[in-house]
Amino acid sequence: MSDGGPAVRRLSDWDREQLLSLADEFGSPLYVTDLQRVRENCLRLREAFPEAHVSYAVKAHTGKAVLETVLDAGLDAECASAGEVERALAAGFPGNRIRYTAVNPPAADLDHVVSRWEDNPEMTVTVGAEDTVGRLTERGFDGRLCLRANPGVGAGHHEKVTTGGHAKFGIPIDRVPSVAEDVRDDVELVGVHAHAGSGISGDDLSAHRELVRRMGDLARAIGGLEFVDVGGGFGVPYHDDEPPLDLAAVADATRDALGDTDAQLAVEPGRYVVADAGVLLSAVNTVKEVPETTVVGIDAGMTTLLRPAMYDAYHAISNLSRPDADTVSTTIAGPVCETSDVFAEDRPLARPARGDVLAIGNAGAYGYEMASTYNSRPRPPEVVLDDDGPRVARRRETLDDVVTLERTASEHPPN
Ligand code: LLP
User: Fold this and answer.
1) Residues 181 and 251 in one domain
2) Where does this protein have compositionally biased stretches of type Basic and acidic residues (predicted)?
3) Helix (H), strand (E) at residue 132
4) Is the ipTM of this complex over 0.90?
5) Which residue, of 222, 256, 274, is where some domain finishes?
6) Which among 222, 249, 274 is the end of a domain?
7) Which atom of ligand 1 is nearest to the CA of 369?
8) Closest atom, ligand 1, to C-alpha of 269
9) Residue 202, in any domain of the structure
């Protein structure tokens, strides 16, 4: 085993006693993020793609402690908004290690990013529409630009996260060479980019391979590029019996499909870096026996972890408080007044009782980031684990936080 640790960290690999004591100390629901695992995941990526430029797609988890860890581990930051650029800068990423991927960017984002670029002229901006170039140059931008292509092929764990081939993202690939020619007078064209989608598994490799092949052809057709970015999307196993992605095989397939090019390969995974570094702890509020099932009501809901409600995503769940109890078939549901607020159905779980603490696995990616205050539910805190032990990285929101925008509305006119 290299310093990159095992290829996968399952829910059962977490220290049960430690998680129980964290729930006891910090309350629930509670996100726990292990920074050492973030480091290991970064290292495995760098080992699999030693010749490539590897960025972390910040959107998966923007917490400062995670960003600092990723920076230290040698990955750059791929940011999807002005806010993410701001957070990357605040975490210490220098401009030359930040890429901003503009997706239908609001004017305020462009204003902000261009003003940041003025102080950090090595920052790269990726555009997915011809008119975004004009919107940048009219703001004075003449820096490093990357063109995002719609490669016409995509993949992902759900249609809602299959990006490649969707008209929203990127310039149709056959138009990119002529756009490249047009923009070269105004900006420094440094790369091309495409992203297939999120949660690519071993079975989806054919789409990834085809995307990379098309991007290699594109980079050769344009010529003189610094990099060709083939996106992120590397999947992690959510089911306990699912094998981990063979990263070396993905890297080999990527190199093979790219072919010879002077442009450096670039990848930008998000989920792979943080998914199995995070767990969500939640306490049982209610246990209700009904003819079809045992309903287990917990204090986390779709407002805490949206993925099951939004994508029917599977997350492993265990009852930390009862490692040895018999299992029963359960429906595990949150406190939100919506039918989709269900984490699992027909799920075997050690027979739960009120007050038990459940752990929900692979909560590090798109967990806290997609949390909301729907139903006026405050968002949970996040505790990070590092060499110095646990510390609160984001505090628990209060009911006062939830209503504060109304309370202070008169102090902040809409514009
Ligand atoms: N690059 C671009 C341009 C992206 O849009 C994304 C993700 C990534 C990289 C990173 O993809 P990853 O390696 O994390 O799969 N909320 C969804 C995932 C949405 C992903 C959006 N874009 C989920 O929870 O499954």
Assistant:
1) yes
2) 388-399
3) helix 130-137
4) yes
5) 274
6) 274
7) 16
8) 13
9) yes
